[in-house]
Amino acid sequence: MSAPAVSKGGGGASGAEPILSARNLVKHFPVRSTGLIRRQVGVIHAVCDVSFELLEGETLGLVGESGCGKSTTARLVLNLIKATSGEVFYGGKDVTALSPKQLRTLRRDLQIVFQDPYASLDPRMPVNEIVAEPLRIHDMYDKGGRELVRDLLRTVGLKPEHGNRFPHEFSGGQRQRIGVARALALRPKVLVLDEPVSALDVSIQAGVLNLLDELQAELGLSYLFVSHDLSVVRHTADRIAVMYLGRIVETGPAADLFERPGHPYTQALISAIPLPDPRKERARERITVVGDLPSPADPPSGCRFRTRCPKFAAELTEDERRRCVDDIPELVGRGQGHPVACHYAEQKVLI
Amino acid sequence: MTAEDVLAGGRPEGAAEPVRPSDPVLEVSGLTVGFPSEDGMVQAVRGVDYSLRGGEVLGIVGESGSGKSVTSLAVMGLLPRTAKVSGSVRFRGRELIGMSEAELNKVRGRDISMIFQDPMTSLNPVYSVGYQIAEAVRAHHGVSKAAALDRAADLLELVRIPNPGQRLSAYPHELSGGMRQRVVIAIAMANDPDVIIADEPTTALDVTVQAQIMQSLQAAQAETGAAMVLITHDLGVIAGQADRVLVMYAGKPVEIGTAEDVFYTARMPYTFGLLGSLPRLDRPSERLTPIPGSPPSVVNMPPGCPFTPRCPLAIPLCDEREPELEPTTDAGHLAACHRSDELVGKSPGDVFTTGVADTEALAHFVEESEELA
Amino acid sequence: MPEPTTTTTTPAPGAPAGGAQPGPSGRAEREFTVAERSQFQLVLRRFLQHRLAMVSLVVLVLLVLLAYVGGALWKYKFGEYTPDESEPPSWEHPFGTDSAGRDQFAQVLRGTQISLQIAVLVALFATVVGTIWGAVAGYFGGLVDTLMMRVSDLILTLPLIAVAAMLGHNFGGTWWLIALVIAGLYWAYVSRVARGVVLSLREKEFIEAARALGSSDVRIILRHLVPNALGAIIVNATILIAVAILLETALSYLGFGVTAPDTSLGLLVSEAQTALSTRPWLFYFPGLFIILIALCINFIGDGLRDALDPQQTKVRR
């Protein structure tokens, strides 16, 4: 078969219309006291003022470490969690303001693949039923749904004869393929992939990534690819947004971002990933971040990264630091060729 | 009494003498582990041999279920009673398998220590970390509590915990995951062991924290001069840390060699496939070459090489006889494959294919779904 | 819940399963070397290996058969007066007779029937009502949950025996009314259990997946929550049968349960208490039946719980 040429990095989808756009998304989770009267005692700032556009046919990578709000953002986009404020536009409508009935129709176009293939499939349903479920929900099963399910299973690399087996009999990679088949059944336009390969072994992960690549090329899907793994995101995404503690700190075309990272956090993240190449790995320059993620219930003022920033700690003068403490850096172009949210952005070559 | 005195004088009589770098400190041979189950014996480890020289880092890689963790639990004598263990594990010539629990306890912690993936399982939530490190010191050395606490503070500093003096009184739940793992490393090096076994020490942590932990681990190893067995599924970590690499598949080592041997001139199709499956940060995107199929079940295994159904090079011989580890181009580089010679000079893309989706089925699906909508 | 329609036959319990069969390509199958089994089959296998539960199940089935088939075939009918008064057990009257000449064997069989009927009805009624109540409260959460659970709590605070006795006194007599009274007080326990199960299930990703697909709430509850909670609820229902038997016994003993001319095991024990020293067989046989039934059901519940627990270690020793 001809491997579809997947254009990467160079804005292969440039000029395309945004199919989905998020504007100033904010999500606060209340922290309640324990006890009889559960007063609200604080707020977790999970997602803060996040905006992005997903172009038609492209893959946008949303990358960051645990607690950065990337999965919450993915759920806000699908309205699986109600946003505190902000809008998500799809097809000219604000997803966050739809009625339950309108939302149900929207589900045909926006689908999600979950991280944990062990938890995201109902253990009491045979695989055929799991994949048929979206068709049944939208009253499409009776019109040839059986055939469709068989073809879907074959498409993702499973034998239709195994359709009567239950999820627990399959390996992690096979279950993730079942999850992909279920998400595809309604022929969505946008697929949110929430860490789709993080729970899988590398040899299996590659198969799922290639499958997603091919499906995107054949079905014209747009992907919002959420992951903590920079290597995976670099491989799959056309454009990347790096998140830290609820905010996007840097965004740009994949190749550009990796070749000329401007934000100290992106730089630290890239240099922390070990390369599977002994000579290169042992000869690398490392930018190490100190300390741990601050609590999202009480994020630092100004730039949220400053408490761990190697630049803030070592290079900046007292006066320069004041700006990091007082002003929230905006996500704008600062001479790196792509927007960076750092007052003192400076590109570095790390690979 | 300083911490150095504790370590120098604290070693009880009868303990082994200092290691020469060339001597193997740990020798594992013919190790097998089975777990009885209702479907038959689960052969988690089916014959592992390796020897670890003083100060060396041996990386063990493999996917989940390959038996890499079970191997080290067997070395430490930490498997549940239902497990059937056979073979030999020698620490400086002393056989550990079949040793009584009391004798094993003397070896564990003092001579061989272990670092697990989840630090919460090895820390006791009701004691302060200072107390726990001091206890580890006192378990094998008869020193005063104050001296042990001093040593604990030194250890915390070594693993790069800021303000070690203050952290001594902290409880595990007050620390972050990365901080806890560093406490575990401090406990592991408390008695200046000869061997540290680290089982996925950074898997549960974020990458930036993972980098910090690897630095702590390197510091710990440099300080104690211990040899280390580093078990992980992350080939990047192995590439950066390991002197030698052992690749496991279905309970058996399938390739052993120096890091350069394994990463640049792999001689087993499985290692090849693994390397080709990795998305790379350091080069522009190309197609990945996944290994088709899934890892084999280790219950009721048929004869022959367990990698056969996923192997693009498989020949009928592979189904009949399981290949032994044999020297390849270099005497120190072993691979278990009947056709290892054919991998010379090849890249993963030459051996494995990239296609995964069934295009015919996909076309059907597109047609049908358009009719439906 | 869809029926598992597996094609491979399950090997007999204890026999080595699977074996390496050649795959379709003629090459040895390595991925699925363990025979295909549905969850139901897995549970069944584990249950069959639970010796105590299996023995209890056999004993219980024999008891039920004895009560219904044996009761119909036995030469004396229940309530029938024979000329033999106050006779100790003999071949003619295996459990003896009472002072009025009624055959105690026939009486005990009838009592077992009534007691079992009450227990099963209680279990059914309380389980259905309690499960729906708890599932709805747990799934929707918030104010709905708070209100519904306060109602459950209220019922749980009532002194069970006293209220049942009072209600039984006013409406009692017929066996199914007694059952409704007991069930009306017991569903609240079930609702607590069901709510707990649903609360933990609700957070699972497959429920979120169902919502992302556009499932309605009713569909999620019926198609995903209930089938997954079923295991825990069945175990609970089994225990409930044993509890109901004992409660009915207590009520009848106190005179607020089944009333003569019909009978139940509790009533038989109650009637025999004055005759304990003179005609002990009247007391011991119904007592033995009560203990036997309650014990069997508890062991079966144990076996079910072990079999349904996915954390259960595979080898039983």
UniProtKB/TrEMBL annotation, chain A:
Domain annotation ABC transporter: ranges: 31-270
Molecular function terms from GO: ATP binding
UniProt entry tagged with the keyword Hydrolase: no
CDD domains linked: ABC_NikE_OppD_transporters
Alphabetized Pfam families for the sequence: ABC_tran, oligo_HPY
Keyword terms, alphabetized: ATP-binding, Nucleotide-binding, Transport
PANTHER family noted in UniProt: D,D-DIPEPTIDE TRANSPORT ATP-BINDING PROTEIN DDPF-RELATED, TRANSPORT ATP-BINDING PROTEIN
Record-given protein name: ATP-binding cassette domain-containing protein
TrEMBL record, chain C:
Keyword Cytoplasm: no
Main subcellular location: membrane
Keyword annotations of the record: Cell inner membrane, Cell membrane, Membrane, Peptide transport, Protein transport, Transmembrane, Transmembrane helix, Transport
Gene3D superfamilies: MetI-like
Region entry Disordered, spans: 1-30
Membrane-spanning residues: 52-74, 118-140, 147-167, 173-190, 225-247, 281-300
Compartment annotation: Cell inner membrane; Cell membrane
ABC transmembrane type-1 domain span: 112-301
Composition-biased stretches (Low complexity): 1-12
Family in the record: Belongs to the binding-protein-dependent transport system permease family. OppBC subfamily.
Protein name per the record: Oligopeptide transport system permease protein OppC
The organism of origin for this protein: Pseudonocardia humida
